[in-house]
TrEMBL record:
Higher taxonomy: Bacteria, Bacillati, Bacillota, Bacilli, Bacillales
Protein name: Sporulation integral membrane protein YlbJ
Highest taxon of source: Bacteria
A Pfam family hit: Gate
TM stretches of this protein: 6-25, 37-64, 121-141, 147-166, 210-235, 294-317, 323-345, 373-394
Keyword line: Membrane, Transmembrane, Transmembrane helix
The keyword Membrane appears for this protein: yes
InterPro entries: Gate_dom, Spore_IM_YlbJ
């Protein structure tokens, strides 16, 4: 039997096994699904939607091209991506996963990036947001605000290192583009304004149409993200019930022993491979020293979890941008973040008065004071924009 047939057989078996597990454990599946839906409904949708809509409008009006021309002398030599990558990086940091992939795919569709440039750009513009690291992880999960600076510094520095390393990705393929790249080594403000004006003239859509399309596209992306969050919440719970997590933890414990790492962190690593929040929750509960737990949390934040990676893969699937370089970049960032956390532990935590006591995880996300307003208003915001999406979608199809 050919390799493709074996792959088909394996995929069919895994799908049937997952379906059977959900049928055999309906209560656990429902609880996990409800938990994933609550995270999407209250936090993910209302926090990401404004960034997605504004980004679509900024691209449509040419403001991203304006910033791109001005940032070209910085982004090109450092990361070998166009200056517009600076905008994507900033928005990715501000709004968190998977905004960087969404904007990279959008710029690729606009032909503002080559596929190699897009693969470089997406590899380092998908970050955890400061709100998530400071409020959710540091305050909420570890109940230790002093960890925020340490986690954020390790995360964003490792992200920078990944971007610098990925500049060498595909350099042979891009050799023929060197003349185009060096055309405007020192752009002027007038050149940037000219690019903005040219983009605006090319876009013949009225403002109302652009706004409607921005809302439609953003809500569609967030619906896909919500589906992945719910799916991986159920998958993680099912794997835990059937004993896969314990089996994998037993195998990993041997590797942890070789590197003198606490074996109690194997289960948090398994959980974090699938989903960031659950992995960090498990790490905070582990019977290990605070430094070891924070190193594990930093690795999980850098790796991003298969849930986030699946979201990115679905976004990139609409373009010719390959997913594999992004996956390699996530592995690199996970290890870089863990090493930097160990290096920066003393200057950014111990020397700043951090204490080494362990902390109990929170009982619920409502305990996070910085997220209280978003938690209470999030469902209303989500419901409003879902109704607006249905209305805009109906109008768009009625016009045809």
């Amino acid at each position: 039997m050919s390799r493709e047939k074996w792959n088909t057989l394996l995929i069919a078996f895994l799908m049937l096994a997952l379906t059977a597990s959900i049928i055999l454990h309906p209560k656990a599946s429902l609880e996990a699904s409800r938990g994933g839906l609550e995270v999407w409904w209250t936090i993910v949708f209302p926090s990401l939607l404004p960034f997605f809509i504004i980004s679509e409008l900024l691209i449509g009006f040419g403001i991203v091209r304006f910033a791109g021309v001005l940032l070209e002398p910085v982004m090109r030599p450092l990361f070998k991506v166009p200056g517009s990558g600076g905008f994507v990086w900033a928005m990715g940091i501000a709004s968190g996963f998977p905004a960087g992939a969404k904007l990279t795919a959008r710029l690729r569709k606009e032909k503002q990036l080559t596929n190699i440039e897009a693969e470089r750009l997406v590899s380092f513009t998908n970050c955890s947001s400061p709100l998530f690291m400071f409020a959710a992880v540091s305050v909420g999960i570890f109940k230790n605000p002093a960890l925020g600076i340490l986690l954020a510094s390790a995360h964003y520095l490792s992200n920078l290192l990944v971007g610098i390393i990925m500049r060498f990705h595909g350099r042979q393929t891009e050799a023929q583009n060197e003349i185009r790249i060096k055309k405007f080594p020192f752009p002027l403000f007038s050149e940037a304004f000219g690019a903005l004006h040219e983009t605006r003239l090319k876009n013949k859509k009225p403002i109302g149409k652009m706004l409607g399309d921005a809302v439609l596209g953003s809500v569609q992306t967030l619906l896909v993200i919500g589906g992945f969050i719910i799916l991986f919440s159920v998958l993680t719970r099912i794997l835990d019930i059937v004993g896969f997590s314990n089996m994998a933890a037993g195998i990993l414990s041997q590797a942890f022993y070789l590197f003198s790492l606490p074996e109690t962190l194997t289960k948090p690593l398994i959980a974090g491979v699938f989903e960031i929040t659950q992995g960090n929750m498990e790490a905070s509960k582990a019977n290990a020293g605070l430094l070891s737990k924070v190193i594990m949390a930093s690795f999980i934040l850098g790796f991003s979890g298969l849930s986030v990676q699946a979201q990115v893969a679905s976004i990139l699937a609409e373009t010719d941008v390959r997913f594999f370089p992004f996956f390699i970049a996530r592995m690199m960032q996970g290890f870089f973040a863990a090493i930097l956390t160990w290096v920066l532990w003393k200057p950014l935590y111990v020397n700043r008065g951090g204490i080494s006591e362990t902390y109990a995880p929170p009982n619920g996300i409502e305990e996070l004071e910085p997220l209280n307003i978003l938690y209470s208003a999030g469902p209303l915001i989500t419901l409003f924009f879902l109704c607006l999406y249905i209305w805009l979608y109906w109008r768009k199809n009625a016009a045809y």
